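Q: How would the structure tokens look for this protein?
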Amino acid sequence: MAGLLQALVGASEKAAHVAQLCRGEEPLFQLLVAEKTGAERNRRFLQDFKTLADVLIQEVIKHDLGKEFPELQGHIHGEESNEFQNAQGESRESPKSPNPDPGGCGAVAEVGVPAGETVAVRVCATPGDTAALLLSVLEPERAAAELLAEAVHRDVALGDAALAGVALSVAPQDLAIWIDPIDSTNEYIGGREDVAPVDGITPGGLCSALVLIGAYDRHTGCPVLGVINEPFFRRDPLTRRWHGRYHWGVAYRDTRLSSLSPPAPHPTPRVVLSRAEGEAVRGALGPLCGDRLWFAAGAGYKMLCVILGLADAYVLSEGSTFAWDACAPHAILRALGGGAVALADALRARREGDTGPPPELVYNRPVEGAVGAERWANRGGLVAYAHPQHLEAILAAL
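A: Here is the predicted structure in token form.
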């Protein structure tokens, strides 16, 4: 598993580079800007560019992990569908590769796609083939397609001695992966860099756009490995290039390892919420937290605030997060002694007099009767916490 952990971190770094590239290179940045105005949306192609950025990052992670760990193929799941419709232009053809894509994702370098037909975005065998495939969606943006293809095929060197020294043992065939390629996509597109933090928690903006990769046990659904990458952690004032950072955690059987130290609890719990959170929850938590209720964008970012000790808990009463939002940060929280519980189930258990550990979120169990993305919604909300005593106080207040 040590090799898999390094592969997850490496995949997150490549994904972060693609996300940075889309904001830093002019041909790609202009496509993102068109999304903000709305006037250019879908004018040249049927799906917006932000979705392509999401999908491409997701497919890069799938490709790289599947290539290195064939046992994971078919068990790497993401938020996005990888199918796009080619909106215009004539049929294009490129030389066909005789072999399937080595990543095992079913991709071949066959890019003859007539206008109006479906394109499955994949990582192909060569940068040229990948660029041709992307061009079938982005036509006529050839420079953008070539920039993205180059980033997709670049090698990533971590140089992280602490990560390289991790020694673990678990079979990859027992695991599956959830990917959120760009969590907080609206903040990513908005691109605000001047949002001032409040006690260390930034209410919104580019810094809340994260890459999340989590591994869970296929049989139990329990999260065991998590990587959070912050592509927009800091911008160099001279070069204007973005610098990111990553965090990881392992919670497998009796093993608890992380790139971070467990955060110290605050005497009065600090809780971070969504701005859409209802008055009932705000009112119930007020007497417990006083003026220590903070608000932020992005489920992954709010869970990261708990991981970093900026908040003691993240409370959400609605089923508006999904498996791909929570798996990676949940694994890191478990590594640090915390966790993420299913809020409605935990409250029900308390009302029935159950004083045992509240039920944690699991990631292998689709919602019965639901369809589409809703199959993987965290129905009934969640509480992500760093310290069990704060969890108990929050459940009592709610």
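Confidence is low (pLDDT under 50) at residues 38-47, 88-113.

The first helix runs from residue 2 to 24.

Upvote if useful.
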